[in-house]
Amino acid sequence: MVSDIVELETPEGTNARRAFPRVAQGVLWAILLGFLLVAPLFFYPVFVMQLLCFALFAAAFNLLIGFTGLLSFGHAAFFGGAAYVAGHALKVWGFPPLLGLATGMLFGAALGWAVGALAIRRQGIYFAMITLALAQIVYFFALQMPFTGGEDGLQGIPRGYLLGLIDLNQPLNMYYLVAAIFLAAFLVIYRVIHSPFGQVLQAIRENEPRALSLGYNVDRFKLLAFVLSAALAGLAGSTKALVFQFASLTDAHWQMSGEVILMTLLGGMGTIFGPVVGAFIVVTLQHVLSGIGSWVQVVIGGTFIACVLLFRRGIIGELARILRISSL
């Protein structure tokens, strides 16, 4: 026993413990990259593309709630609103695919700045209610504006050609574009979390008065985080509209805001890979159990209750606790 303790206290043992989190994260990165490469060989490509769009949406939302401590009940406004704008740019204005996606993402950022500027000075339930109210205004415009198609949605969005050369109507071409977008955006989120900016966001989440006393402009950092999260959520919504060639009211409805909260909590709020796992579970359940109609919501609700009782930190959060890793 004594020899074990001595062994743990040696420099080699300390280095091993320090290296273990990097090894664990490396394993998860390898699993994610491997899945992205071979997934269309084993699964229906459109289904995997739907998984990736919602995984990006959940990861963007987690940047706000998990690493800044801001609970938004209106993130569907950025996801659904950007889907309509990108769809309109592609269908009516004839934008190429990448420019259409960028237009939707910029719309999400601009809308995020407007909503964040109004809501960021409130905290807790007041912040959440303001975001929900503003999101309902966006939903009203999505229902009433003539270019959105009302309850029928915006249909027939063309996929077009990537860089004028690659036909995105081919499922595999479309899939690898979506996989590249997801991976690039996920790397941006990972880099932001581990940057000095991300460390300030986490300091605000842990103790906002202390961050304020240290001289940080807390409101400006929270607004930047809100805009970045909204822009990435807009990119996810735009990509989904391009994949399905369709933008609907469902994407902008308040229930979508609830679903992304569910995905984040299920996988692990404040973890890197948790939202991805949560999105995969929720979307897979919806897809596999689609035959039972609205009862699928009961199953998802029961799954959520079970996870809350058994995995209070979410699946990845509990895995990180077991492995004694601060961030996974």
Report what the structure shows:
The protein is mostly helical and about 325 residues long. Helices cover about 75% and strands about 0% of the residues. Strands 1-4 form a two-stranded antiparallel sheet. Strand 2 (about 160) and strand 3 (about 165) form a beta hairpin.
Count of DSSP-assigned helices? 14
User: What profile does the largest beta sheet have?
Assistant: 2 strands, antiparallel
**Computed Rg:** 21 Å
Helix content: over 70%
Instruction: Identify the strand order in the major beta sheet.
Output: 1-4
Q: Tell me the total number of β-strands.
A: 4
Class computed from helices, strands and strand pairing: mainly alpha
List keywords for this structure.
single chain; 328 residues; mainly alpha; two-stranded antiparallel sheet; 14 helices; disordered N terminus
In short:
By secondary structure, this protein is mainly alpha-helical. Helices cover 73% and strands 2% of the residues.
